[in-house]
Amino acid sequence: MCGIIGYTGPLAAKNVLLNGLSQLEYRGYDSAGIAFFGADQKVHVLKTVGKVARLRDLCAGIQEEIHCGIGHTRWATHGGVTAENAHPHQAGRVTMIHNGIIENYHQLTADFELEEKLISQTDTEVAARVLDALYDGDPLASLRRFQPLLKGSYSFCILFSDHPGEIYALRNVSPLVAAYTHSGSIVASDLTALIPYTKKYVVVPEDRVVKMTPYRMAFYDENGHEIQPEILEVNWDTDAAMKNGFPHFMLKEIHEQPDAMKNTILPRLTRGLPDFSEDGIPDQIFADCSQIRIVACGTAMHAGMVARAIMEPLLRIPVLVSVASEFRYEDPLVDSRTLAIVISQSGETIDTLAALRLSKKLGASVLSVVNVKGSTIARESDYVLYTHAGPEIAVASTKAYSVQLAALYMIICRMALVRGKMTEQDGCAFMSDLLDVIPAMESMIQRKEEIRQLVRPLVDKPDAFFIGRNLDYAFSLEGALKLKEISYIHADAYAAGELKHGTIALIADQVPVVALATQDRIFSKTISNVREVKARGAYVILIAKESAAVDEGLADVCIRIPDLHDRFTVFPIAVVLQLIAYYASLLKGLDVDQPRNLAKSVTVE
Ligand code: F6R
Q1: CA angle 131, 132, 133 (to 5 degrees)
Q2: What's the mean pLDDT in 203-218?
Q3: Could you tell me which of 584, 255, 257 has the C-alpha nearest to residue 446?
Q4: Per mean pLDDT, which range of 73-87, 104-118, 143-157, 275-289 is the poorest?
Q5: What is the mean pLDDT of residues 408-435?
Q6: pLDDT value at position 375?
Q7: What is the mean pLDDT of residues 94-108?
Q8: 602 in contact with ligand 1, CB cutoff 6 A
Q9: Ligand 1 proximity of 298 Cβ (cutoff 6 Å)
Q10: Does the structure show a pLDDT above 80 at 120?
Q11: Are 343 and 294 a contacting pair, CB within 8 Å?
Q12: Which residues form the SIS domain (predicted)?
């Protein structure tokens, strides 16, 4: 939530900041602003409600050469979407941008007697005023006094008006990456803003202060001693964070799924079986556990639901999936024989991180499935299985979901082998089935025009229902989430057998029902439920395997997916459900990549 960037160096800072903000905009897009040192060596601020494009217009009037500045794109937490609440915030000699939440801002307001002085409703302005009150002309020393006063999550970029050309940055929990290049020093919420300038970067260590000048970037610990953080290298390039001819990132990312799957699976296959030795994940964690707790949010949690539906019957140990924001407060039964599997694309979701920390505290081994290298969740986990989807920019997760599933399927297979629930021959067959899903996904992507056409009857409807049993139910959850978040059609998923216990009251003439019936074992049961909704007038879109016998008139539309083993149908289905949501949003003329009220990376509770 919120994207921040700072740059000082020989390049035109206005472009670096605005281009960086465009890359970071998926993190929040309520309002945007920049602050910079002008030719007069004074700090100037420009900010506006709305997206980065509007800020860009506002900045068109800046004629002078700028070489040092900071920029922010906001997802409102404290205070509404107004120009006053937009960042940067200024107090005396301090100009600040912030990503995160300062939880004790009330206390700080009282302690520093700020009530009468505040112009905005933001916690950030409180932080800026506190820092200004502490500021004695020495930025590093003042920041050392400032940091212990703060409770909450934050990453800040700060200009001190009496230190032109310098930027200071610090963080706790909220992400911040930095790089010093021959074109100056740059810091940002994530790598997408850095990669046009460099592939080498550092994750700013928590509770450390970064001092950036055009010639150097230095990191200081709490005693003011300089430290050398580890330099990492990103393995994707600028193209990966561009639309490359696609009208939206979401469509591009849907198309990238087959490659993302290959990148995630193939390097980890040895003689046809999953091999995590390069990832440093020992078999012991799979052998020793007596229960598995999967924790994640949103789409990542839905991937966990699919994994659970396969894991428990196969491994014969309890597997529970929890929404991370609930897990923290439900006093979970976790002990040293628990394997906690934490799933997160961004690796920064605050609730998931808190669940990870709690699991570790209770003695569990934590294995995370993460897409962003070096992210907080990855760094704090005992073991990490990286998915290799590359950057996911569209707010609606697509390729990250598929590769999370791929990674989880590999974990299932490895675990079944280690625990003697699969022979090597079974394991090879399982992995071969997993690889077979890649052409199946490709074939569904190629049929996107067909899906666009069948979505038309949905777009003017206020509601839609997704139904399925067992694994199909787990897939439905993701289909409903995808549709509602980008098309704003109210959509809910139900276990098909559960409908008649209440929800069927909502099924009336032409109400859309997307029915998933891809599990051979329970196909006829699901079809009975389809008949029930059809009998009440529903407009039924049925998704079934190629060879499934579907009676004439049962559904208004039937989408056939390739004949795969039941466990693997999720992959082509994911593509179909993503395309349904994509075209519904597109046909309604909505902002597909940046739906209202959302942000890509949820770093506030
Ligand atoms: C929905 C979506 C979200 C995320 C959720 C978790 O399309 O993207 O539901 O899946 O916010 O995010 P990560 O995986 O970054 O922890």
Answers
A1: 90
A2: 95
A3: 255
A4: 73-87
A5: 98
A6: 85
A7: 95
A8: yes
A9: yes
A10: yes
A11: yes
A12: 281-421, 454-595
User: What pLDDT shows up at residue 362?
Assistant: 97
Q: Among residues 142, 58, 52, 51, which one has the least CA distance to residue 93?
A: 142
Instruction: Please tell me the residue having the least CA distance from ligand 1 atom 10.
Output: 299
pLDDT in tens, 478-494: 999 999 999 999 999 99
Does ligand 1 lie within 6 Å of residue 352's CB atom? Answer: yes
Which of 75, 342, 348, 349 has most ligand 1 atoms within 8 Å of its beta carbon, as the pocket-test mutant? 349
Instruction: Name the pLDDT band for 192 (thresholds 50, 70, 90).
Output: confident
Cis peptide, bond prior to residue 88, ω within 30 of zero: yes
Active site residue 289: no
pLDDT at 228: 94
Distance (Å) of CA 47 to CA 66, 405, 446, 584: 16, 41, 43, 33
User: To which residue do tokens 């787990």 refer?
Assistant: 474
DSSP classification of residue 230: P
Residue 528's closest CA among 601, 468, 448?
468
Q: How far is the C-alpha of 165 from the C-alpha of 7, rounded, in Å?
A: 9
Q: In which order are the strands placed within the sheet that holds 3-8?
A: 43-49, 31-37, 68-74, 3-8, 184-188, 177-181, 200-203, 232-233
Contact 343, 282 (CB under 8 A): no
Catalytic: 600? yes
- Single out the residue of 196, 194, 203, 199 nearest to residue 234, CA to CA: 199
Query: Between β-strands 152-160 and 94-102, what pairing exists: parallel, antiparallel or unpaired?
Result: antiparallel
Pocket of ligand 1 contains residue 155 by CB under 6 Å? no
- Give the separation between CA 576 and CA 574, rounded to whole angstroms: 5
232-242: average pLDDT: 78
Compute the distance from residue 296 Cα to the ligand 1 centre, in Å. Answer: 8
* pLDDT mean over 161-174: 95
Map tokens 């899906």 to a residue.
451
DSSP calls for 344-406: ESSS--HHHHHHHHHHHHTT-EEEEEESSTT-HHHHHSSEEEE-------SSS-SHHHHHHHH
Lay out the sheet containing 365-370: strands in order across. 319-323, 291-296, 338-344, 365-370, 383-386
Mean pLDDT of 167-181: 94
Joined together, the tokens standing for residue 432 give: 């071969």
Tell me what percent of the residues of the chain surpass a pLDDT of 90. Answer: 87
The mean pLDDT of the chain is 95
Task: Write out the two tokens for 275.
Answer: 């091999």
Query: Residue 324 is encoded by which pair of tokens?
Result: 């991370």
- Ligand 1 midpoint to CA 298 (Å): 5
- How far apart, in whole angstroms, are the C-alpha atoms of residue 336 and residue 334? 7
**Residues in Cβ contact with 24 at an 8 Å cutoff, skipping those fewer than 6 apart:** 3, 4, 5, 73, 188, 189, 190, 192, 193
| Residue 372 Cα: closest atom of ligand 1 | 15
How far is Cα 408 from Cα 392, in angstroms, rounded to an integer? Answer: 19
Q: Which residues pair with 89 in a beta bridge?
A: 96
Pocket test for ligand 1, best of 345, 368, 376, 478 (most atoms within 8 A of CB): 345
The confidence band for 500, taking pLDDT boundaries of 50, 70 and 90, is: confident
| Least confident among 94-103, 155-164, 296-305, 369-378 | 369-378
